[in-house]
């Protein structure tokens, strides 16, 4: 998450408004078995003004990570990659939402 936020440059280090970002994982449903591996994930993001305690953004993002059978022969490799993709998609969707509110 830290790397994604830093790369996005959505926060300005020189800004007078300082914020805290809280993330609560609500769901991470990794696949147990299957040919195409699908992971569902949901996370609640809360952006709070440090000075006032005001909630600036509260958003629940739900995403999927899908890995087709051709990605790897071993199911455990596909399952792990589907988790990675679900989490990355979730972070990406949050940053897109945050950027749109600038």
Explain how this protein is built.
There is one protein chain. The chain is of the alpha+beta class and 102 residues long. It has two helices and three strands. The protein has helices at 2-8, 75-100; strands at 19-29, 37-49, 55-67. A three-stranded antiparallel sheet has the order 1-2-3. Strand 2 and strand 3 form a beta hairpin. The longest helix has 26 residues, at 75-100. The two termini are 19 Å apart.
Q: Return the string of H and E elements.
A: HEEEH
Q: Which parts are unreliable, with pLDDT below 50 for 5 consecutive residues or more?
A: none
Mean pLDDT: 92
Strand-residue proportion: 35-45%
Total strands: the figure is: 3
Relative helix content: 25-40%
Structural class designation: alpha+beta
Number of helices: 2
> CA-to-CA gap between the ends?
19 Å
Work out the radius of gyration.
16 Å
> What order do the strands of the largest sheet run in, or round the barrel if closed?
1-2-3
What is the 3D shape?
Answer: elongated
Largest sheet: 3 strands, antiparallel
């Amino acid at each position: 998450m830290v790397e994604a936020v830093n790369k996005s440059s959505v926060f300005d280090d020189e800004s007078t408004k300082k914020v805290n970002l809280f993330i609560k994982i609500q769901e991470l449903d990794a696949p147990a078995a299957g040919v195409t591996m699908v992971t569902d994930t949901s996370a609640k993001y809360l952006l709070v003004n440090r000075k006032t305690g005001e909630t600036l953004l509260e958003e629940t993002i739900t995403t999927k990570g899908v890995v087709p059978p051709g990605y790897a022969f071993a199911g455990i490799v596909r399952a792990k990659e589907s988790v990675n993709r679900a989490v990355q998609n979730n972070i990406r969707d949050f940053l897109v939402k945050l950027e749109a509110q600038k």
